[in-house]
Amino acid sequence: GAGVSQTPSNKVTEKGKYVELRCDPISGHTALYWYRQSLGQGPEFLIYFQGTGAADDSGLPNDRFFAVRPEGSVSTLKIQRTERGDSAVYLCASSLNGVLGNEQFFGPGTRLTVL
Amino acid sequence: DAKTTQPPSMDCAEGRAANLPCNHSTISGNEYVYWYRQIHSQGPQYIIHGLKNNETNEMASLIITEDRKSSTLILPHATLRDTAVYYCIVRVGSRAGGTSYGKLTFGQGTILTVHP
Q1: Do A48 and B106 lie within an 8 Å CB cutoff?
Q2: Are residues A11 and A71 in contact, defined by beta-carbon separation less than 8 angstroms?
Q3: Please, where are the H alpha helices in chain B?
Q4: Which candidate, A59, A113, A67, A68, places its Cα nearest to that of A86?
């Protein structure tokens, strides 16, 4: 079956611009996670959605980062006034219902480069 | 969150068993041990998880010590395609809307290189 998909696969932008990154989770998965991975590091948690609501946004680095999931399926991660330090691979994952013990399925990521 | 310690890198010959160790000495009773791997330029892939008992699936076996302070992931017959970064993660329960869920806290992982 279809896995988690993310678009675009690559995004190059200039410092100060606004970007949106999209995640399509596995159909029927109510839990959705965003992570960020810098070069040579493991992924770092950003935010967790259960259905339409952000149940845990403790990993968002600052208020330039925002994510939505209006219909409980597709999610968009939005970054305002991008900075060079935002350059990373942004990973999305989904799981059946987020309950401890359920595995997370990851997408291929969006590589964001801020010039 | 309980921290994990893994060797930064390991080598394994193709066809042999790869045994990847992980220390998690501060693990608490309700925390699961998870293993994921990440092949170059791909998202992480779930391998296996366990709470107390040893587990086996089609990909690997997970051996957890009786005191749960360490574990070993075993790939019984490593192939070149198993070359990846392997992450051992202790998954904590957190409360969100009354439901316990587990975000993943990744460390640096072990770079496993399988050579011919």
Answers
A1: no
A2: no
A3: none
A4: A113
Q: Encode pLDDT of A42-72 as tens digits.
A: 999 999 999 999 989 999 999 999 999 999 9
User: Is residue B1 scored above 90 in pLDDT?
Assistant: no
Tens digits of residue pLDDT in B34-64: 999 999 989 999 999 999 989 999 999 999 9
Q: Which residues contact B88 (CB under 8 A, 6 or more apart)?
A: B4, B6, B20, B22, B24, B33, B34, B35, B71, B73, B107, B109, B110
Min Cα–Cα distance to chain A from B85, Å: 9
| A14 CA: distance to closest CA in chain B (Å) | 23
Encoding tokens for residue A90? 């942004």
B53 lies within 8 A of chain A by CB: no
- The rounded distance, in Å, linking the Cα atoms of A105 and A93 is 5
Which of B49, B101, B108 shows the shortest C-beta gap to A42? B108
- The alpha-carbon gap from B79 to the nearest alpha carbon of chain A, in Å, equals 22
